[in-house]
Specification:
- This protein is mostly helical.
- It is built from 12 helices and 3 strands.
- A 3-stranded mixed sheet has the order 2-1-3.
- The longest helix is centred in the middle third of the chain and has 34 residues.
Length: 312
């Protein structure tokens, strides 16, 4: 195929999850419902924490940051897919595709860092309770989130700028429901070895280091909890970590599942279906995991809904 210079590329085609027209309406309804649940659930978490002064602590500050990030991550992919299905138009502009890649990378890496920061918060709270208020001061918490956002933004910008130097073939069909970095690189006719090495190195660094931090934190947490003489103290310590562990398992488990599925199957469309499990489902389930397993948050949600109902 004849390569097309990137300046001449005007659009890509997002093939979505299926070619069957009969399934399009079902997929539209399913993803619209999942998106609305994601936005509403995470927004309720933020409003509940904001309205209850007892929840103005580092743990809930990080939870609000995670909820806001989940809303942004879902918004960077799902609405465009819904518009494409509704208008029967699979195209996305070149600039739109690069922008989508940029924002998806920012929020995906930020999710990774926020989970690590939340694990560190639980580590300090359980292993160094007397120093918790000194270590996790408000400006430290804000700095941790801002540094995570800065690193994620720099990484996303680097990948996006690397894409600008690529030239593309005449076939500009992306077998996915959003512009995924790896799928776009596969469409390039120019040498992509640097891009592939960069993806590998960055994934190992910015994926492996936070995951290692989470594992390190929980090794020390488990060790400290097992040394507690009171069974009630052990239960309370594990209950504060249960929700976070569930979210971590969901995020990394679905990510590993997508990686394995892409390795064992040659069908890009099957990989796209599997990627829904890490790009949409965790963001929808996180509010349920935290609200169902956290008594204080359930009480705050109950009070918020009660106040809202009384106003109506």
């Amino acid at each position: 195929m004849e390569p097309t210079n990137q300046t001449a590329v005007s659009k890509f085609l997002l093939l979505g999850l299926t070619k069957d027209p009969a399934l399009q309406s079902l997929i539209f309804s399913l993803f619209l419902s999942m998106y609305l649940v994601t936005i509403l659930g995470n927004l309720l978490i933020i409003l509940a924490v904001s309205s209850d002064p007892h929840l103005h602590t580092p743990m809930y500050f990080f939870l609000c940051s995670l909820s806001f990030n989940d809303m942004c991550l879902s918004t960077s992919t799902v609405p465009k897919m819904l518009v494409n299905i509704q208008t029967q138009d699979q195209s996305i502009t070149y600039i739109g595709c690069l922008s989508q890649i940029f924002f998806v990378l920012i929020f995906a890496y930020l999710e990774n860092f926020l989970l690590a920061v939340m694990a560190y918060d639980r580590y300090v709270a359980i292993c160094h309770p007397l120093r918790y208020t000194v270590i996790m001061m408000p400006h430290i918490c804000v700095t941790l989130v801002l540094v995570s956002l800065f690193i994620s933004s720099v990484d996303a910008l680097l990948h996006t700028l690397m894409l600008l130097r690529l030239s593309f073939c005449a076939d500009l069909e992306i077998p996915h429901f959003f512009c995924e970095l790896a799928q776009v690189i596969k469409l390039a006719c120019s040498d992509t070895s640097v891009d592939n090495v960069l993806i590998y190195v960055v994934t190992c660094m910015f994926g492996g280091i936070p995951l290692s931090g989470i594992i390190f934190s929980y090794i020390h947490i488990v060790s400290s909890v097992l040394r507690m003489p009171s069974s009630r103290g052990k239960h309370k310590a594990f209950s504060t970590c249960g929700s976070h562990l569930s979210v971590v398992s969901l995020f990394y488990g679905t990510g590993a599942g997508v990686y394995i599925s892409s390795s064992v199957t040659d069908s890009p469309r099957k990989t796209a279906v599997a990627s829904v499990m890490y790009s949409v489902v965790p963001q929808m389930l996180n509010p349920f995991i935290y609200s169902l397993r956290n008594r204080d948050l359930k009480e705050a949600l109950r009070n918020l809904i009660g106040k809202t109902t009384s106003l109506l």
